[in-house]
């Protein structure tokens, strides 16, 4: 049930352009916020996070494995600051 709700929310968010996705980039220990939709770029592509740092899209986790990043909840301070200023909706995303 909870999963279903999360999926519905994700599909609603997918229609908006201002959504902040909290991702754990390649090699990162914290979540950075990006506005590029997950799936837009292949793994390894560098995108700009809200904090201005260039971060790399991580490799997708093959099913049925759970992405290692799932347990990471710490957020980048710079991204968090910018996110609060924007007031955009956000969602946590693991690849
Ligand atoms: Zn950041």
Order of helices and strands: HEEEEHE
First-residue to last-residue Cα separation: 22 Å
Small-molecule binders here are: zinc ion
Largest sheet: 3 strands, mixed
Structural class: alpha+beta
What does this structure look like?
Strand 1 (20-23) and strand 2 (32-34) form a beta hairpin. The chain starts with a helix and ends with a strand. The model has no long low-confidence stretch (mean pLDDT 91). Strands 2-1-5 form a three-stranded mixed sheet, covered by helices on one side. Strands 3-4 form a two-stranded antiparallel ribbon. It has one domain (16-92). By secondary structure, it is an alpha+beta fold. The protein contains two helices and five strands. The structure holds zinc ion (ZN). Zinc ion (ZN) binds next to helix 2.
Helix-strand layout with pairing:
Blueprint: H1 2-13, E1 20-23, E2 32-34, E3 46-48, E4 54-56, H2 77-86, E5 90-92
Parallel strand pairs: 1-5
Antiparallel strand pairs: 1-2, 3-4
The structure holds zinc ion (ZN).
Write a brief caption for the model.
Helices cover 23% and strands 17% of the residues.
List keywords for this structure.
95 residues, 3-stranded mixed beta sheet, globular, two-stranded antiparallel sheet, alpha+beta, binds zinc ion
């Amino acid at each position: 049930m909870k999963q279903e709700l999360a999926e519905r929310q994700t599909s609603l968010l997918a229609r908006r352009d201002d959504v902040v996705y909290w991702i754990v980039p390649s090699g990162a220990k914290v979540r950075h916020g990006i506005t590029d939709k997950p799936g837009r770029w292949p793994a390894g592509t560098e995108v700009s996070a809200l904090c201005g740092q260039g971060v790399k899209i991580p490799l997708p986790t093959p099913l049925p494995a759970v992405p290692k990043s799932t347990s990471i909840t710490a957020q980048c301070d710079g991204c968090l600051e910018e996110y609060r200023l924007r007031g955009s909706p956000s969602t946590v995303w693991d690849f």
